[in-house]
Amino acid sequence: MRLLVTVVPLGLLAAAVTLLSFMPVAFPATIGPLATLSVAVGLLGMLASFAATYPKLSASYLVVCVVASFLGGPQRAVPLFDPALYAQHPAYATLDGLYQWLNARGDLDAYRKARHPYPVIISSAEGGGMYAAAHAYLALSAMQGVCPNFAQHLFASVGVSGGSIGQLLFSASLDANKENTVLKPCHRRTVSIPTAPVTTDLLSPVFANLLIVGTADFLIPGRQVFTDSGTALTDAVLTTLPGNEFLSAPLRASWSPKENRPVLVFVSTNVNDGNRFVFSALDNLGAETAESFPSGNIVSARDIGTATAAVISARFPWVTDSARLQVSDNSFRVLADGGYYENSGADTALEIVQQIRGLAAQTQTAGCTYQVTGGDACKCQLYVLTKFDTPVDWQGCNSYIFLAYVPIAGLVENKPGYVYGDTPDPSQSLIADPLSTMLAARSARGVIALARAEAYFGGFDDPTFAGGNDADSGYFENALPADALRLPLGWKLSQTAVDDMLNLAAPTEACEVPTNTGVPISKVGTTETETVPSDDSGLPIDPDLKQVARHDNGCSMATLAWLFDPAHHPGQYAIVGW
């Protein structure tokens, strides 16, 4: 009997690890998270039986394993592309990349002729596991479905944690060349959005690795033997769009100024100094106050896989291991979830906006010496206009742009800095307060960063857009009421949850604000004549949070659509504000 108790659990653990070594994603995804958890619990139970049978031996060996886990040395570094084994892609400086990208836009001439600045859009997507990934993917895809030229104007997309994976999936779903065309009118979205990428089970592979493979690795004292749970998550992400080479391509190859995909900016947190660590294909973009890889203030001949970089932004210990990144021959960084530093991505997005403004101002100075590919940035100056509907005389080779910001984040009910009621009995605990404070501060930092960005675009007169918003502000929020939808914080979503989220993704048909012909945009292109009982905002009487989000996201998208018809044709599918 003792022999049976000894051989069976160790044999089954070895068999499970071997199976997961060959099928790290397919096997756990096939049986699902509950079955995966059951297998793991069963194996752990058998190991507990072994420990009960041999208590002294087990206790001694457990001490060795615990000590080895602290002293056993660093984990294996994430895989990088060896420059000798792949075709290297150019590393563009920010200004050079922006100039080349702008001059390659297929619809630039429409803005020249209409005497309007060219809209350059920056987006950000906050963290929150799979629901944040789905929110980013669905919102960006819906915007593309309403305005066919949206991706063509999306210069940079900042992602944190799950938001990084969502924007990765959106970029991977784009045809890099097909959409960079002449200006096409916006319209009610009629094309369905594939939801398979965000209903893929990413949880089971992580569970299997964490509870089964991780247990085996812990029981083998010394250096890491098997792949970690972060790598398992990366492998799972690669299955969301089967056969899509963009996901596994080097990060520098993820962007070209001639294509319509945005510069992907993935934000992680440096474990050792607590600062942001930015992954970007464009030199130093969004990283004036942070380290940047593989270009920027850390210049490396090596490159990192695009999905690998996105998942590093979403590695949240202990669920997924922190990542060890080799940035040079004798230098490493240990990186974790970007939400530890700031969960919304707004800080990084605002830094990109300020970078572009600063670079544009420098092209206009007397001592300017900027050289860009194919020209002189000091002779062909860059101007950033603060209002879109400002007439512009496009003379010579000068360029005129209008910066717009699209934050994709959770719905914030209570704005920071305001008192909304009494708090008669707040929780307080000598033991729990340190952890509670850190978690609350982490959440608050993201909310404050969004409020700061909102105030930057809203101005001193109306920093929270209490008096309404219009296209000239450049601020177009897409908010998700995660609590109202009861979305889980994990790596798996049901089809029902995704459908609920899709219903809130840029639904212009939910906005009752009239277009420039006086017809509510919700009725444009339809035969509808009935309206719901509403107040002057177009919302149903006594709306819930989901109705508020659906209305506001729809009107925000309709306002963003104003940027895609610089001639402002009568009946354009857009509103000037709301």
Compute the number of strand runs: 16
Query: Which regions have little confidence, pLDDT < 50, spanning 5+ residues?
Result: 529-536
Biggest β-sheet description? 10 strands, mixed
Class inferred from helices and paired strands: alpha/beta
Number of helices: 17
Radius of gyration computed on alpha carbons: 26 Å
Helix content: 25-40%
| N- and C-termini, Cα separation | 76 Å
Keywords:
single chain, ten-stranded mixed β-sheet, two-stranded antiparallel ribbon, alpha/beta, 578 residues
Describe what is shown at a glance.
The chain is an alpha/beta fold and 578 residues long. The chain has helices spanning 2-22, 26-53, 55-71, 94-103, 108-114, 129-146, 150-153, 162-173, 196-199, 203-218, 229-237, 306-312, 346-363, 433-458, 482-485, 495-502, 545-560, and strands at 80-81, 92-93, 118-125, 154-160, 263-270, 276-280, 282-283, 291-294, 303-304, 323-328, 331-337, 371-372, 375-376, 382-385, 399-410, 478-480.
